[in-house]
Design brief:
The chain is mostly helical. It is built from seven helices and no strands. Keywords: Electron transport, Heme, Iron, Membrane, Metal-binding, Mitochondrion, Mitochondrion inner membrane, Transit peptide, Transmembrane, Transmembrane helix, Transport, Tricarboxylic acid cycle.
Length: about 160
């Protein structure tokens, strides 16, 4: 019935008046109940659910908080690397950049890699890549000029 009313309004007045009126919000003249009231009241459960929302582990929340804290530390380390270059800042940058990259790529693996074996291989590869990255940055800091001075040398070119 409501469909007929809407079709006749389109045919008589055109589309433009129909879109700017409240005629689309009109309920049909004859509305039928899909289910009797007794069935609706039977669907309401008075028992508590077996699981509570938010009552589980706080690991995801703590991980998110750790990621945000690491991002804030990185924001502080970048000016510190410019103002006070040295071994402490170099090794701090090596650790925070590696951890930041590890967590970021871990989210990519979580979102885009599917299948049990593929996920295990991807996570193992990511862990290996992160370990090699951290070891390489520490090696560079110990045996060469360090991250801060290397970036300063790149800016001087």
């Amino acid at each position: 019935m409501a469909t007929l009313v809407r079709l006749t309004s389109i045919c008589r007045r055109g589309v433009k008046p129909l879109l700017f009126r409240n005629s689309l919000l009109v309920r049909p003249v004859v509305a039928q109940k899909k289910e009797p009231d007794s069935i609706l009241s039977a669907q309401i459960h008075s028992t508590a659910p077996q699981y509570e929302v938010g009552s589980g582990s706080k690991a995801a929340s703590r991980h998110w908080t750790g990621e945000r804290a690491l991002s804030v530390v990185l924001l502080g380390l970048l000016p510190a690397a410019y103002l006070y270059p040295g071994p402490v800042v170099d090794y701090s940058l090596a650790a925070t950049l590696t951890l930041h990259g590890h967590w970021g790529l871990g989210q990519v693996v979580t979102d885009y890699v599917h299948g049990d074996m593929k996920v295990k291989v991807a996570n193992t590869s990511l862990l290996l890549l992160s370990a090699v990255t951290f070891a390489g940055l520490c090696y560079f800091n110990y045996h060469d000029v360090g991250i801060c001075k290397a970036v300063a040398m790149l800016w001087n070119i």
